[in-house]
Amino acid sequence: MSESHLSTATAHVHGHGEEDYLSCSSGWKSWAFTLDHKRIGVMYLVAILASFLAGGIMALLIRLELLLPGKFFLSEDQYNHMFTLHGAIMTFLFLIPSIPAALGNFMVPVMLGVKDVAFPRMNLASFYLWIGGAIFFLAAVILGGLDTGWTFYTPYSTTTNTSVITASLGVFILGFSSIFTGLNFLVTINMMRPAGMTWFRMPLFLWSLYATSIIQILATPVIGITGLLLIAERALGIGIFDPARGGDPVLFQHFFWFYSHPAVYIMILPAMGIISEMVSTFSRKPIFGYRFIAYSSIAIALLGFLVWGHHMFVSGQSPLAAMMFSALTFSVSIPSAIKVFNWLSTMYKGSVSLETPMCYTLSFIFLFGIGGLTGLFLGALATDVHLHDTYFVVAHFHYVMMGGTLIAFLGGLHYWWPKMFGKMYNENLARIACLIIFVGFNATFFPQFILGSRGMPRRYAKYDPEFQIFHQFSTFGALLLGAGLFLSAGVLLHSLLRGRRAPANPWGGSTLEWKCSSPPPHHNFDWPPVVTEPYHYDHIQYDPKEGGYVEVEEVAPDPDDAPLPVKH
Amino acid sequence: MMTSTMLSTLHAVWGQSSGETLVFPTQGSDFAPAIDWLFYAITAISAFFFAIIVGVMVYFVLRYRRRPGHDAQPSASHNTPLEIAWSVLPGFILLAIFAAGFLIFLDLRRVPEGAYEIKVTARKWSWAFEYPNGLVMEDLHVPADRPVRLLMSSMDVIHSLFVPAFRVKQDLVPGRYTEMWFRATGAGTHRLYCAEYCGQKHSTMVANVVVHEPADFEQWLRIETDKTNNLPPAELGALLYKRQGCAQCHAIDDNVQGKAGPSFAKTFGTQQRLTNGESVTIEENYLRRSILEPLAQIRAGFQPVMPTYQGRLRDNEIDALIAYIKSLNPEATPKE
Amino acid sequence: MSDSSSVVAEPSATSHHHSDDHPRFLAHHFGSPQQQFDAGKFGMWLFLITEVLFFSGLFCAYAVYRSTHPEAFANADRYLDSTLGATNTAVLIFSSLTMAWAVRAAQLGQKTLLIRLLTITLMCASIFLGVKAVEYSHKWDLGILWASQFNPKDHAAHSPALLVLSIPAILATMITGVAFAVSRAKKSPIAAPFWFCLLLTSVAFFGGVGLGTMVPVIEESFTGVKHGGDHEESHSEQGGDRSHGHDEHANVAQGTDAHAGHSHAAESQVSEPQASIGNGPSHLLGQAEFDPTYTGIFFSIYYVMTGLHAIHILAGMGTIAWLVWRSIRGDFGPDYFGPVDYVGLYWHLVDLIWIYLFPLLYLIG
Prior knowledge:
The complex is a heterotrimer.
Chain A: H1 2-14, H2 28-32, H3 37-65, H4 76-112, H5 120-142, H6 156-159, H7 164-191, H8 204-235, H9 249-283, H10 290-303, H11 319-347, H12 356-379, H13 381-387, H14 391-421, E1 423-424, H15 427-453, H16 468-498, E2 500-501, E3 540-543, E4 548-551
Antiparallel strand pairs in A: 1-2, 3-4
Helix pairs in contact in A: 3-4, 3-5, 3-16, 4-5, 4-7, 4-8, 4-9, 4-14, 5-7, 7-8, 8-9, 8-10, 9-10, 9-11, 9-12, 9-14, 10-11, 11-12, 12-14, 12-15, 14-15, 15-16
Chain B: H1 2-14, H2 32-63, H3 80-109, E1 116-123, E2 126-130, E3 136-137, E4 140-143, E5 147-154, E6 159-163, E7 168-172, E8 178-183, E9 188-194, E10 206-212, H4 214-229, H5 233-243, E11 271-273, E12 279-281, H6 284-292, H7 315-327
Parallel strand pairs in B: 1-5, 4-10
Antiparallel strand pairs in B: 1-2, 2-3, 5-8, 6-7, 6-9, 9-10, 11-12
Helix pairs in contact in B: 2-3, 5-7
Chain C: H1 2-6, H2 33-68, H3 70-77, H4 82-108, H5 111-142, H6 161-185, H7 191-223, H8 239-271, H9 293-329, H10 338-362
């Protein structure tokens, strides 16, 4: 079985006549109505990158405006619209779907060794729901904008005259999109694992997406109903959240954070999954403590539901509730710490190669370390009272969301890019881009910790002049960060045109996606793949002829067929 | 209280008198040393672990970098005792941080007996601080070394009162009271911000906190109260216009456009159209009704957004405001 | 639902007679019909979990307001007719029975029985909506609406609310009637029976309207006018008297409410200074006293919950209609009945939600 598999893989790589998923059919209809999870993943990728671009440009405008303490070029209203849309677009259109819907959609069936997700039509529906949600967001921008902050707190959101209803409908629809993706992954992973793919042979990326999907299924409906109630509040005046009608605005905050805190884990868990994959591959070592990492994903998913109240320590909830939420918040930090220790241990005695995805992995551990540790300041009640709603919080969640999710997303994109598009990018330029992003990121957000502890509140269009020096530093950092991101985009796009053809396994990965050709054929595998323990590297060796790694059998059954093991 | 005593001792050991550092503003209340102490403690713990993580990471990258002649060496793929150890041990440190944070927080929430009470009303986008004798100011004046309790509510959306120098913050929620307290240390002036996003001019919803020496405070209060009480109506009205937040929505200058409510300049005595198509003369009864029942008769071109001032203004204050608005239109002919 | 549809690949009337390796109803990416069925069923269960959580937000809102303002909820209950609620509960439980039986019929390949049972289920759903339309329109006439429009009157105004709510059903009757006539004339073997089923469904709505109008009258003739509160729905000459009685009740309630509200506020002063003290727009920070505000909020919750439930009924009707079409086409049989099973699960959940709504809304007086 395995030798025939090997020869087929080789044939795929060398046989240029083979059809891959990109070339098997053409015309816009073959994309628009495709049920192929890989094409849907690619469409998602394009769409979320467009959202990221829009959100990123807004971020730069916000930072530029903050160069001066008074008005620079945005009015207060424009500034308020800008940070609201930046937050809403980045959260709902980019971060939440980024890894699961784009990279996950592409990789889950391949890494699992199946032909497609369980419900391909639902998968496509999920993508079009995303487009629908994005259109509603766009409509909200056109029909008067949105100035509530991405949190939509009542009663401000019920009294402002901007398009809250349109935007809430957008969130509602995007919620369905997210639920469909999560549901698909849960069913696929539960019901369709091929023979040999036991739970504990699954790559950790799949474990992390499994945990993510649990959150998507359990939390997203709550933001759905919250959005509907907010719409009803504005359209009809149902009074549930409106103090003018006897309602309780703090109830809205509970509903909102019941979703939106777990949503943080929807963003970060898949990122941790990608890091687990990359740290193992680029150290050529089995991941250390596989089961602890797998279980910690599930633990994070479940504990994440119990901590939403830590967003509300100064909202007037009782000290008892505050105490419980604070204690639970500290408990959720432990599974994250476990993962970091395990990643480091994986590198121990390994063969660490600093290819671009590994650079992002190291960057992730650094930035997520800061993001996670600064969470301690916000979990502790007394310090949170001072830091709540200041730039300290802004810096903290950017270190987690951007230093965590975005960096892992970029790492994963570089890691799987050759697999997805069959092209190699310029390694040195990509590494330089990674370095610029790393430096620019820290320059942007580190000063914001100090701004926050000095008392600079967030969401301020104007500020006291004493804060200016930190804001200026941050703005210059943001420009550097933007330059790094553009360089990175340029490197990847350039590879599509001029890149070297990618081998099936450019990095020496051991999971199933490296066993099919790059890009994969339409049905991923034309033969049922042989599933063994993941993260075993002894039989994967570099082959200069191939330009990538190939599998060698310890005892090659047919020397004519199997390529010779070559060390480099 | 015990912790606070303990922590004030700590303050004496740790803090300099002003307490201003790179990361913190002046320590203006006796919460500040305690909270700063916790902050630095967490910073020290975090820095320690961060240094280990990054140090180990860098060492492994250098030591085990892929190079000719070096390949991955076999090592354990898991080590349960080690993993349990690093899962459980951080828990104790976290528990300590949690406990410290919670104990200080209890002090923040437990208002001492006999605190000096000031009522705070927030609205878009200004503050009103009301003293026990009825005096209302737009800045917060407090005595030093005496517990001050703020009893707070909002007239429109959620606001949040934040004094960085005191390290205190609390949301003001419409439809209910919230409270907070502090004991200011030493005379001085600090900034007070709205920390919960509340709309267009959120970033200008800023006031000053003036801390007076205890003896000076009573004197200040007396002078300020006398000043207010002895003003002629139109001048008192001008003062209330600022202190009660009218200025946020109503201009007194014809050239100012785009405020949420109609301008007061040159309106008294004029005929104006209402949203329901009728027209009305702006005179004393209309103004009085608009202050107490703002949604009853809305001028054409404006949104029904004004909160009621019923129960917030005394009769003489309403009279004063009317007199002030009247004074803004010298051409007005008194209605007979 | 879309997840159940997506597991089906081009089924044909004869597919279930094949027993070869890859039957036509089996999608390419599944290994076996069993795997396909299990995946669909597991997906449906997950979807039902999301539905439960979707409604759980509303149940939370209900729990919060009922615990903080029990008097308002007890007071609100007198506006709801528990007899009509019970009637609708019975109708839905019966429809669950027919739906479960339909799954059995599909498994046994009893095509005619399957079509009949699905049609009965659809008709029950339609009757449910008819009764609901009577309730809604009556509340509209009495001014018992959500918080911002809550303005109860003693006498029901006669408005065309019921007619307006019936417009979709009238249109549906006309359209399905025409479609049935045309497809019958064309002797279309699938479309004609299909449209006939939908015609029956549309007409059943008016049966529901009749039921909703008659049940309170019948009940009254048996029990007299004792439970005046439950009889808001019926126009009796004694309406004036009864509403007078209500006022007294309301006054009594007012006293206790004020008391309860006050002690509640006092308690929370002790234990939790931040607790709600205010009670309404005009008494932002005043003393708690009885206020129709919270009865209005009860009805906000009532309308959101029952309205969302009605939307789920409509969605269920759409999917059952799709099943009817496929049953007539002969898609289902012992080898392939997944979609009937999945829609059945959904339908039971919708019924179950109503079984919670009924006591929580109608039986708390």
